[in-house]
Structures are given as structure tokens and as C-alpha cells.
Amino acid sequence: MVLYLDELILENFLVNLFLLQITFRTIKKRCALKRQILSAFLGSLYVIVIVFPELRFLNNKITSVLVAFLMILICVDSKKFYLKGTLIYIGYSMVLAGTTFYFSIGNKGVNNYIFKFNYKKLALSIMVIYLIIDRLVFYIKDRKLMHQCIYEVDVLIKEKNIKFKGFLDTGNELREPITNLPVIVVQKNILEGVDIKDYIKYSITYSVVNGKLGKLQGFKPDSVTINENGQKITKEVILAYCDNQLSYSKDYGALLPRGILV
């Protein structure tokens, strides 16, 4: 019997990725797709111990459990999910292995006389379809949720009206310390061609998740109007500008603070 190592690794990678997906769905823990792919790939390399005789001493229950634990360890940072995730992953692995083995044995007689059907390919096809549908559903839900937080913003600067879309960042509580006004962070390119020299400049200090501090320059425009479900809300705000692109998909060009709609 001829075994192709690349096919074995690919098949085990798909199985591992499928098992990781349903494991994290079960424990209701979100995990980045990149981490899942890395974990699934490293776990798929365990099949090498079956192919090479000199490594077969690693083909045992203890090593299998350790590999499963390391796969979960790569995916999550919280210690409380390590044991739970590992046990559920192993449980799903046993159910999947038992199910495929049952169908393979149960159909053996039929295969010999009528047709040859590869249940392994069927199982892999189902897993691939599940993974694709799961990512599509996640993407659609994520896009829908994001668009619910995007608002049309009109800014008046020296009788010049600027329109752009802003994303309501519920974790953003940025305020200018002197005026105590909420701060809208906007991409600098949106203000191209707008003369803001006559406006008082404010320096706004902000902090990011990793604790690092930064500073933004801003000013108070003549007026800011936000369109919320057809209702226009006028607010006093500070407009700060940054050089970075705020949305990779270019869905919005500004970040709105949480208190902007209150």
C-alpha cells in the first residue's frame, strides 16, 4: 500500500480544523482563524509518527493527549479553557473516528459486490463544506453588525460641508481634557483641501490596549451633524485627525466615541 505524506497531512489538517471549529463553538469561545490554522497544521504533523518506524514510539495515548492540549493552548490564552477545550476536542475526535469506522465496516459487504464508495472522502468533503459555510455565515453576520454601527456624518468647516462615514466604537471614550468634548478621530485625507489654520488646535492624549500612549491634534469645527436612522443629531465635538487608514475595507473614515449619541 502506497501512502502519500502530503495527502495524509492535508487530510489531518482539514480534520483538525473542523474539530477545532466545533470545539470552540461548544465552549462558546472565539478564536482567531490564523491561530486555528496554525494549530491544525502543527497537529497534522503528528501523522508523521505513523509513517516513519523510528518515530512510532510516540504513537500512544499520552502523546495524543499532549498534542491535543498543545493545539488548544495555541488557540486560546485563558487557562480555564485549556482542560475543558482539550477534553471536548478529544471527545469529538473519538466520536468522529468511531462514526467513520462504523460506516466503513457497515458498508464493507456492499462495497465488495455493488460499488466502491470512499467514506473518507465523503467525510472530508462534508468538513470542507462546513468550514466554508461557517466562515461565510460569520463574515455575513460580522458585516451586518458592523454596518449597524456606521453613521453618516456631516461636518461644517468655514461654510464647507464635508461628508464621511463614521464607525461607532463602543470602547472609545476619548475626550478633549480642556473642553471635555467627545473626540471624533478622522482620517487626515478626508480633510484634504480644507483650511483649518484659523481654528484653535487641541492636543489629545490617548492610550491603546497595550498601554502605549499617543497624541492627536484636533480642532473644534463649526458644527457636526450625525444621521441616526433618518434623525439628524447636532453635536459639539473635537475633530482629531490621524494618518492611518481606519478601515482596511474602506467602509468608514472616522471613529465615533461612545458618548457621541447620548
From TrEMBL:
It comes from the Bacteria. The active site is at D169. It holds the Pfam family Peptidase_U4. The keyword Transmembrane applies. GO terms for biological process: asexual sporulation; proteolysis. Keywords: Membrane, Transmembrane, Transmembrane helix. One of its GO terms (molecular function) is aspartic-type endopeptidase activity. The chain crosses the membrane at residues 36-52, 58-75, 87-105, 117-138. InterPro entries: SpoIIGA. This is Sigma-E processing peptidase SpoIIGA.
